[in-house]
Amino acid sequence: MAKKIVILNGSPRKNGNTSALTNQFRLGAEAAGNTVTEFHLNSMDIRGCLGCWQGGKDSECPCVQKDDMAKIYPVYREADVVVLASPLFYWFISGQLKTAFDRLFAVAECDPNYRNPKKESVLIMAAEGAGFEESEHWYDHLEQHVGWKSLGKILCGWVTQPGDIDGKPELQQAYALGRSIQ
Q1: CA 40/CA 134 separation, integer angstroms
Q2: Separation CA 86–CA 8 (nearest Å)
Q3: Residue 57: which pLDDT band, with cuts at 50, 70 and 90?
Q4: DSSP strand E in 41-116: where?
Q5: Are 62 and 107 in contact (CB under 8 A)?
Q6: How much helix, strand and coil, in percent to the nearest 5, is found in the chain?
Q7: Mean pLDDT over residues 117-127, rounded?
Q8: Which of 180, 130, 151, 157 is nearest to 21 (CA)?
Q9: CATH number, domain at 87?
Q10: 63 vs 58, 81, 100, 153, CA distance in Å?
Q11: Are 136 and 128 in contact (CB under 8 A)?
């Protein structure tokens, strides 16, 4: 059965190496009959979480802040798979991705027990060097905490400038991972 997939792309470069990976993932996922929606977070107006515990009162737009998260919430709620995509910045995911993900807590606030919706997930990252351990640690524990199931990780190191990823095997791996989702 076809799945709905949302990609939260935290790269500041719309045509960078992270996007090259998400593009291949999308092509594979769509070839398998899935629907994919990608959000380029850097071009969106998304403010940081206030930690106010006031979300969850409106299921259509669960956060008290009114910004571009309102575009993400309905797609996220309907998604079967969430792809977290980011370049590696100072050994962690980008601020753009972290900010948007923090704001998804408002969806958990819609549940009386603060449960997150059950999803499958993927981590996609590109880096000028290597050293994804901190991001993997966060992702692995996030998945355990929110009750998600990881479908895999695509981690591509040693790509600095846009286009450096051309010819890297991780592009084929991203396509194959997307194609495997059914």
Answers
A1: 23
A2: 8
A3: confident
A4: 81-87
A5: yes
A6: 35, 20, 45
A7: 97
A8: 157
A9: 3.40.50.360
A10: 8, 21, 12, 29
A11: no
Give the model confidence (pLDDT) of 140-178 as tens digits.
999 999 999 999 999 999 999 999 999 999 999 999 999
How large is the average pLDDT for residues 15-37?
98
Q: What is the pTM of this model?
A: 0.97
Overall number of domains in the chain: 1
**From CA 23, how far away is CA 16, in angstroms rounded?**
10
Supply φ then ψ for residue 45, to 5 degrees.
-90, 95
CA-CA distances (angstroms) from residue 33 to 114, 119, 157, 176, 180? 32, 18, 29, 14, 10
Structural domain boundaries enclosing 69: 4-180
CA distance 28 to 156: 18
Token reading at 2: 């076809």
Separation of alpha carbons 135 and 112, rounded Å: 30
Please state the length of the chain. 182
For helices 69-78 and 95-103, give the axis angle rounded to 10 degrees.
70
Cβ atoms within 10 Å of 102's Cβ, excluding its own: 14
